[in-house]
Design goal:
homotetramer, alpha+beta, seven-stranded antiparallel sheet, six-stranded antiparallel sheet, 13 strands
Chain lengths: 262, 262, 262, 262
């Protein structure tokens, strides 16, 4: 279980969310309050959109709280759309390739959660990645696989549909393999213009996910960045938050269960 | 504040203390119970005596809990005298040179605690390191400085006296500079034959330190490795534990306060 | 292209081959003489057999020449059978999981060379790894894939046959995909008792590989460790060197081409 | 011996100098042509001025050629004044704190060269750092010491004079200690507005240093970034290059020898 923040709005320094708030992402890396584990010290990453179509990426296997480079970048980089993520993967080796966010072309993706029974299903899950995107597989984890499968499900045309289709097929594969552990997902996705966030759990117990409007800006977070909980809205289980620049945000249902039940 | 273990006795695998016990050093790195901070994720190190006079050293800036190399070494290296240390230095950059243990010639040293007001006293403290040992200064922290000062105070002839003399002079320097924060030390020291452990606090509130005999072996630890607390003896504040191979261990007073009061 | 050394014989310190000789592996990491690139600074690793059935492993993404931990381990670890490897992968990110040697159960493997057209063939190659071993896939490179395929081809029963079968199938897959770049392999393999070395190139231009007997010991190296070239024997292209403890070594043909031509 | 580039002018992406030119800094990290060693793989760093008074910093102990984060940052960060540095320190451990550039307040500094006999002189050299700046000493090397001494010699008021005074005192200390190895320096310095570059050797054999005007921009480099050598001017030994925004650049003598000879 990990913790993350996503931002879209007028350009701000990354430090405004990553290091400065009372319960900033860095604070959460040492003391998360709504996650299964308190410590998120197994690598971290930031991804941001600047002047180019494709995002920038800085990922490192150290804990976020002790990385001077992160502190410097967060103070210097100002962005209108960025992701930041701290990772908990206690007990397994850490590599940059398995740190979030993941970038592919103009897309950026990060995830918190798990595919139940992934170790046994890995091959099946990886087979869902189309040939055109398999070359981009740089790590070995379930999160990157979800991202690349979504690419192969039409991410460019219909992002919400592609993610729903991905989750649907993963749930189906888990069912075939009689996996009892759940699929639990919160995820953020962007093409540099729109910001998407997803919350879904096959056992109706999804990881925490909140969002709020703040002036013209949108913040989506695993945990509120301050103690004013009433200012934050939970993203409902089985739904996506879709934010399109000045057009504001909509909460839409994710067609995972519907089709699944059919 | 950090956590550490030291061992002397019949050769055992490092994993017997570092990874395997119920409340092993690795377990303490994620959930210390008697330290100011729970997480010790800012680097770690092991030092051990094998076939050579000088000890081996493996130090890394990653958290101990996610380092596969440590897991491998702990399972493969068997030693009759070894140290292991996990570090908490939240908020400052981590480098191997600042990780414990420190080695110099045949000596090995590790430390948990602090020199109150070290930032302002650093220059004064470093000036206590004799010219002959200043070249060995590879990092910037107080712990390594204590080790090198002890070298310059006759470590080879009288290890307990050299450490007491070091602490005395540091306390004196703190007093001159009107530092109110305390000096707090637990430390382990070895020349490859004898094992020394120290516990001292200028405010009588030293970090926790325990030891026990187990067959022909001695274990000294920041926190008991299991829940059988009655099996562990606290090292008294202001004292050193001196273990000389088959000769057993003595607890002797550290002449810090005595001279200080004179 | 990488450089490596393998040793079997009376226990010696790893430093005897890794750091001390005139043209030691560390020297080769900065100035290889028989490889396409001179610098092998993209990670390194050592694997050794000690008191346990499975080997120890230390792998790191830094250049071998600047790693203090390696220097310490090479001076402290004494082994009767060990591998050491320095890696050149200029231009791609380095992770420990992609560093050699690779360990799986009691087996150890390292490789120098390339599967021509691997980027396009990766999926096909990975499909050759049997389900029982796919879970052990921790990286993304061709070398680890070769090792795991060999596991699925009966490595435990017939190591030379399993490697030959692996190479045969890879060559066949390259042919189907009309890859023109060659398969080039030198590799070392051990189960903790026997030492195997392989040299093969589909274009008859294999990487360099030498071996020698030195008292009761066997050394296999990418490049001679000293200037006495006449003391070293080349392993012939398309052959395996098979060393069985006191039983000495045999050079046997690798049944890649034979079957291939059939 | 290291290699570096400095830029001042209209904002450009760091990749324009660091990764893209024919003989870019990354190319130099693997194949320097005018340095004592060809490989500069012992860490690297970039420092740049953006929207804040103090510079940003990204330093890493990996070789520059294999660091994906560097590639990303160089493509995303656009700056009107930046430094980049690749380091050669073969044989000694690498830490971020010893990587260039160094930042202190609004100042940025990087260096190539050596203080002859530094190991024996380190204490004397460090004593030249004023108390006000000793706390900023994060590493152990001569380069950072030069920067902090210059701070204590009036860097804020007279940068060229402060550096000259620093070099003068270092040469004097070397003379007192009868060090025969030379002081050799090329260095870049900035306060975020002006760009200074220095070239000096006590044995008149300074490391290479070139500069050129390109439109409204200034580039200062250890080695030309392309094969058009005639387009690059050598900075003369014993001189400083002083560039003040639109005001252009002057080459002025460094008062090291003059005073020294008095």
């Amino acid at each position: 279980m990990c913790r993350w923040v996503a931002y879209a709005g007028p350009p701000i320094f990354l430090s405004d969310l990553v290091t400065d708030p009372e319960h900033s992402l860095i604070a959460q890396s040492l003391g998360a309050e709504e996650a299964k584990v308190e410590v998120n010290g197994d690598g971290f990453g930031i991804g941001w959109y600047g002047e180019r179509t494709e995002p920038g990426l800085y990922r490192e296997i150290l804990p976020a709280w002790s990385d001077d480079n992160l502190r410097h970048l967060a103070r210097q980089v100002r962005s209108r759309l960025f992701f930041a993520h701290v990772r908990a993967a206690t007990g397994t080796a850490t590599s940059r390739a398995n740190c979030h966010p993941f970038a592919n072309g103009r897309w950026l993706f990060m995830h918190n959660g798990q595919i139940g029974g992934y170790a046994g299903l890995r091959r099946t899950i990886e087979a869902m990645i189309g040939d055109a995107h398999y070359g981009a597989r740089a790590g070995t984890k379930d999160s990157e696989a979800l991202f690349l499968i979504a690419h192969s499900r039409g991410l460019d045309r219909d992002p919400v549909g592609a993610v729903a289709s991905t989750l649907r097929d993963v749930v189906a594969a888990m069912r075939v393999a009689r996996v009892e552990a759940p699929l639990r997902v919160t995820a953020a996705l962007s093409d540099g213009q729109r910001l998407f966030a997803f919350r879904y759990a096959s056992d109706r117990r999804p990881p925490s996910l909140y969002w709020r409007r703040d002036g013209g800006a949108i913040q989506v977070v695993s945990e509120p960045l301050d103690r004013r909980r009433e200012a934050w809205n939970a993203v409902p289980d089985g739904h996506a938050l879709v934010c399109c620049g000045a057009g504001g945000c909509d909460v839409v249902p994710l067609a995972v269960e519907a089709v699944e039940a059919a």
